[in-house]
Amino acid sequence: MAVPLDFVWIWMEIEGLPVALTTATTAKLIEKTIGEMLQVDYPGINKGVARVRLTLPLNNPVRLERCIRVSLEDVLLVNLSLRGCWVDA
C-alpha cells in the first residue's frame, strides 16, 4: 500500500519582526501565505518570538521573502528562515 506524502506538519520561527508587530495576528497573516495555520506559540509571542505550527504543502515551493499587508498603509517585508523550523515527529 502506497501512502502519498503531500504535506508535512512543521513549526516555523519567524525572525526579524519589529517588536510592535510580533503578535499572533501578524504571525497568522504571514503563515496564511504559506500553508494552513494549526497553532500559534502564544508563550513565544509574549517573549517576542513568533513561532507557528502549520501544514506545509510539499508540491508548492515556499518563497522565503514575501510582502504582507499589516494595515491599510503598511506593508511588511518578511524573510522566513528555514533555520528556525522543525518537523513534528
Describe the overall structure:
- It contains 2 helices and 6 strands; from the N terminus they run E-H-E-H-E-E-E-E.
- It is of the alpha+beta class.
- The longest helix is centred in the N-terminal third of the chain and has 9 residues, at 24-32.
- It starts with 6 loop residues before the first strand and ends with a strand.
- The relative contact order is 0.30.
- The mean pLDDT is 78.
How would you describe this structure in keywords?
38% strand; four-stranded antiparallel β-sheet; single chain; two-stranded antiparallel sheet; alpha+beta; 16% helix; 89 residues
Estimated helix fraction: 10-25%
Oligomer: single chain
How many strands appear in the DSSP assignment?
6
What class, by secondary structure content? alpha+beta
Low-confidence parts: none
DSSP summary: helix tally = 2
- SSE string, helices as H and strands as E: EHEHEEEE
Instruction: Please list the strands of the largest sheet in the order they lie side by side.
Output: 2-3-1-6
The biggest beta sheet is recorded as:
4 strands, antiparallel
Layout of helices and strands:
Blueprint: E1 7-14, H1 24-32, E2 36-40, H2 42-46, E3 50-57, E4 65-69, E5 75-79, E6 85-87
Antiparallel strand pairs: 1-3, 1-6, 2-3, 4-5
Q: How would you sum up this structure in a few lines?
A:
With 89 residues, the chain is an alpha+beta fold. The protein has helices at 24-32, 42-46, and strands at 7-14, 36-40, 50-57, 65-69, 75-79, 85-87.
